[in-house]
């Protein structure tokens, strides 16, 4: 009887030391690997993704022909997605990189991400990556909290050929979703 009383008391004391609901803690939110340098611009996704769905189409040049079509100049491409809202997040659901024929060459975002107010993320295509050919483009699917907020999506293309440097930029246009 004494051992039973002692055991009950010990269990009661131990249960007071362990906080209620102390299951395994939720793992910390981790951004997709491609966006790790921009982790501070991201936040965990909301419980449900609601709002105005949109699509931005961004034509880019991974390569251009020069000197009468005899020389191909390859470009590095940086796609930037900016949230212009001071108070609300935008969810970037998908980023597709297409080749000249419209086929998906790369999908650099492996899952949706929430872009903080005034946050920016970037995706880079290396100058040596010529898979997309001469007529490449990006398609970015997103959801914004209201119709008055939509991301600013732009691309910058850079190259150097000999002593000559080249730079272009383009702004995304609303596309059909």
Oligomeric organization of the protein chains: single chain
State the domain count: 1
How would you sum up the global shape? elongated
Distance between the termini: 73 Å
CATH fold call: Hypothetical Protein Tm1070, Chain: A
Helix content: under 10%
Helix count equals: 1
Question: Secondary-structure element order, as H and E?
Answer: HEEEEEEEEEEEEE
Q: Please compute the radius of gyration using only Cα atoms.
A: 25 Å
CATH architecture: Sandwich
The CATH homologous superfamily: TM1070-like
How many extended strands?
13
Specify the structural class. mainly beta
Uncertain residue segments: none
Task: Fill in the keyword field for this structure.
about 180 residues, mainly beta, four-stranded antiparallel beta sheet, 1 helix, 13 strands
């Amino acid at each position: 009887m004494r051992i039973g009383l002692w055991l009950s008391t010990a269990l009661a004391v131990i249960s007071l030391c362990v906080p209620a609901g102390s299951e395994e803690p939720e793992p910390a939110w981790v951004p997709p690997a491609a966006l790790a340098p921009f982790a501070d611009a991201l936040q965990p996704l909301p419980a449900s993704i609601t709002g105005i769905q949109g699509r931005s189409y961004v034509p880019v040049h991974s390569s251009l022909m020069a000197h009468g079509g005899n020389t191909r100049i390859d470009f590095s491409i940086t796609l930037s997605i900016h949230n212009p809202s001071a108070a609300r997040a935008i969810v970037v659901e998908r980023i597709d990189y297409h080749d000249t024929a419209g086929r998906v060459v790369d999908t650099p975002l492996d899952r949706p991400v929430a872009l903080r107010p005034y946050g920016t993320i970037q995706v880079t295509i290396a100058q040596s990556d010529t898979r997309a050919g001469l007529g490449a483009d990006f398609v970015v699917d997103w959801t914004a909290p209201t119709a008055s907020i939509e991301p600013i999506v732009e691309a910058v293309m850079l190259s150097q050929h000999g002593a000559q440097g080249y730079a272009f930029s383009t702004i995304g246009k609303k596309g059909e979703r």
